Amino acid sequence: MLAAGVVLMTALSAFAQAPAAPAAPAKPAEPTVEQRVADLEAYMNNSARTANVASKVAGPGPGHNAWMMTSSALVLFMTLPGLALFYGGLVRRKNVLSVLAQCLGIAGLVTILWWSVGFSLSFAPGNAFIGGLDFAFFKGVDSNPSTLPWVSQNVFAIYQLTFAIITPALIVGAIAERMKFSAVLLFVTLWMFAVYFPLAHMVWGGGLMAGAAGAIKAIDFAGGTVVHMSSGWSALVLCIIVGKRLGFGKTPMPPHSMVLCMVGTGMLWVGWYGFNAGSAGAADGIAANAFMTTTLAAGVASVTWALLEYFTRKHASVLGFCSGVVAGLVVITPAAGFVDSTGAVIIGVLAGAVPFVFCMKLKAIFGYDDALDTFGIHAVGGTLGAVLTGVLATPAVNSAIEPVMKGLVGEQLKAVALTIVWSVVATAVIAYIVKALIGLRPSVESEQEGLDLSDHGEEGYIFESKS
Question: Are 392 and 219 in contact (CB under 8 A)?
């Protein structure tokens, strides 16, 4: 009984000396009718929610979230199967599956990198060049809005993942038919850390080139610098280091199926609505404008390219129409949410003309083997689009750019220069590292036989009898 009493007295003493439990945090104020109406207006206008008020609109806005999920599916559709078929139709039949495998392999690899650290390095708070690890392994990436006011963070993360997938896949076009599958995957792994994640953070993650918030006050609506310039300029460097295909310039290397190329082009055009209109981050007027300008630029560029081909080569080919469509889509990408219909038509004409000169004339003069014109369309087109954005952007379309309009062309040129230097230098270093570690090219025998068999042990004959 004495021992029990001592224990009881000790417990009571400890309880008496224990600090009082912290008071429960005050609940947000119950919204007034006016505040609830303001919340609904914010949802309709895709603006910030009413601060310090318990919103009656719980979670993400259903319409905006639905559009971003749809856009995510459309952008993934651009790579699988759009880009895969577009590139697959342009190579020789012995290398069709190798291109499809590279697109599939990149999609899986980048998904893992994005989940583990890529999304965090691109969009978490950090410094001017790279983000931190706050979102590593998708920590805190749930169904609550975060980066965008009415879109859940998990949807935003997956939408950005689809951009991260297609960007390195574009590089495949420059080194098609002559780079080992293992070397492609190792190169892409290193390239994502050295090029894509930093550029995505610098432009879209609040870093060095993040518009009014950045030291370089450039604008890029949907990826002229981050996607097309980075992949296109890297593709040029990589194809030069890898070297030309066996027999290049001596042996005819025509596309094995323009049917697949045209089908892939159609898929790219459709998917590009998610790429450009989805970059508005909501189903709002900016998205509608991007939808319109994307359509106009692609159509005008396709006709422009075909007309130039007709006047210079006496025919308008299906490949010419397809190349024009893709060029128009590339050049409008950084400007889609910033220019009006007239600006889109001007962009379409220039997109059909300038890349045409690089692909049909200058490539032959310089002699580099950019197998599927990744540099001529994506690097040249992305660079042209970034500059034209500075010339043609108007606050009448998107009032958010009003603070950066003064001196915008100069800021765009700074962003272009930084993107080129960053991509070229990093790609050269990575390519030589991969070359030293595992080599870039297959054996001569494997390349002659085709990468379908040497890398994957399969054959990909399509629409053609083997007899």
Answer: no
Bridge partners, 131 (sequence order): 126
DSSP string, 332-369: HGGGTTT--HHHHHHHHHHHHHHHHHIIIIIHHHH---
Q: Are 351 and 331 in contact (CB under 8 A)?
A: yes
Q: Sign of the CA dihedral 286, 288, 293, 298?
A: positive
Model pLDDT, residue 460: 72
Bond prior to 81 in cis (omega within 30° of 0): yes
Measure the CA–CA gap between 378 and 127, rounded to whole angstroms.
28
Other Cβ atoms less than 10 A from the Cβ of 463: the count is 10
The domains found in the chain, sorted by start residue, are 68-456 (1.10.3430.10)
Q: What are phi and psi of 60, to 5 degrees?
A: -75, 160
Among candidate residues 429, 372, 382, the one with its CA nearest the CA of residue 102: 372
**pLDDT value of position 465:** 42
pLDDT of amino acid 388: 98
Report residue 187 as tokens.
Answer: 């190169």
**Residue 145 phi, psi dihedral angles, 5° rounding:** -65, 150
Cα(34)–Cα(335) distance, integer angstroms: 37
In the block, tokens 């998904």 appear at 111
pLDDT of residue 206: 95
CA atoms within 13 A on the CB side of 141: 24
Alpha carbons 282 and 270: distance in angstroms, whole number: 18
The per-residue pLDDT for 2 is: 47
For residue 75, what pLDDT is reported? 98
Alpha-carbon distance of 177 to 98, in angstroms, equals 8
Q: Which of 330, 338, 333 is nearest to 358 (CA)?
A: 330
Residues in the chain where the model's pLDDT stays below 50: 2-4, 6-19, 463-467
What does the chain come to in residues? 467
* pLDDT in the model for residue 37: 82
Tokens 């790429």, residue located? 275
Q: What is the pLDDT at residue 14?
A: 40
Q: Quick one: tokens of 410?
A: 């100069």
Residue 453 burial (CB < 10 Å; 0-12/13-18/19+)? middle
